[in-house]
Design a protein that fits this description.
alpha/beta; Rossmann fold; 4-stranded antiparallel β-sheet; 7 helices; 11 strands; globular
Length: 256
């Protein structure tokens, strides 16, 4: 397995009490797989993502990517958050160039790479615009292009479309699914939206809170072309809804 999480445990202090955010969590992710961490607030999905990205450390268990223990953030892995993180004084092109600047490439090659990903996310013609002139969806596209431009091995995404309107969100879901297939990147995506998870994921990791744990892992048998109104899509969605209503304290093997 490419990403391996074994018996991960993490807790925080809150009001003098220990809050168990991750309780003995184990998970494997294959190279090139799109995995969604799905669950309610407080289930530990963002904490698990931050551990995978190297932003937080575990108190027990281990995390490895490509056979190497994760001890800190790496340029081989990028994280895209709900907050776009763009530099307001830089144009679209210069924001996408940001991660390429330290690399030992000539400027023309850097611009070529940046332009490739600007085109890929559908922002051709907006290279000279600044973030204040862009919609929220366009700003998130810049953030995605900037991340892809450095050719990461893994992309972590923490509810990146959560602040967007429904129509823009669906369009970006279409785009990120297409990009993930074309670029063959390993993606771990945090969401609390069941339909978003079913639309995007190869597998859905259903998480529950108090303590934060994996309740089940569901393989999504829908292929690359997904129809939100199709019977197969609605069937998988309804099965995920059912999982959240099951009263179970331990991990459930679940197949659709």
């Amino acid at each position: 397995m490419y990403i391996e999480v074994k018996n991960a445990s993490k807790k925080y202090k809150q009001g003098g009490k220990d809050i168990v955010v991750l309780d003995n969590v184990s998970l494997d992710v294959e190279k090139g797989e799109f995995v969604c961490l799905l669950g309610p607030s407080g289930c530990g999905k963002s904490t698990l993502l931050n551990v995978l990205a190297g932003f937080e450390k575990l108190e027990g268990g281990s995390v490895a990517i490509g056979g190497v223990a994760v001890a800190e953030p790496s340029p081989k892995r990028i994280t895209i958050f709900q907050n776009y993180g763009l530099l307001p004084w830089r144009s679209v092109l210069k924001n996408v160039l940001l991660g390429l600047e330290p690399q030992k490439l000539d400027q023309a090659e850097k611009v070529r790479i940046a332009q490739k990903y600007i085109d890929l996310v559908g922002l051709t013609g907006l290279e000279k615009q600044h973030p204040r002139r862009l919609s929220g969806g366009q700003q998130q596209r810049v953030s995605i292009a900037r991340g892809l431009a450095v050719n990461p091995e893994v992309i972590f995404m923490d509810e990146p479309f959560g602040a967007l309107d429904a129509i823009t969100r669906m369009k970006l879901q279409d785009d990120i699914l297409k990009i993930s297939r074309e670029e063959k990147k390993t993606i771990v995506f945090v969401t609390h939206d069941i339909e978003e998870a079913v639309f995007l994921a190869d597998r859905i990791v259903v998480m529950m809170a108090n303590p934060g744990r994996i309740k089940s892992i569901v393989k999504v048998p829908l292929g690359d072309r997904r129809d939100r109104t199709g019977e197969d899509f609605l069937y998988v969605r309804d099965k995920i809804f059912e999982l959240f209503n099951l009263k179970a304290d331990s991990y459930i093997e679940y197949y659709i």
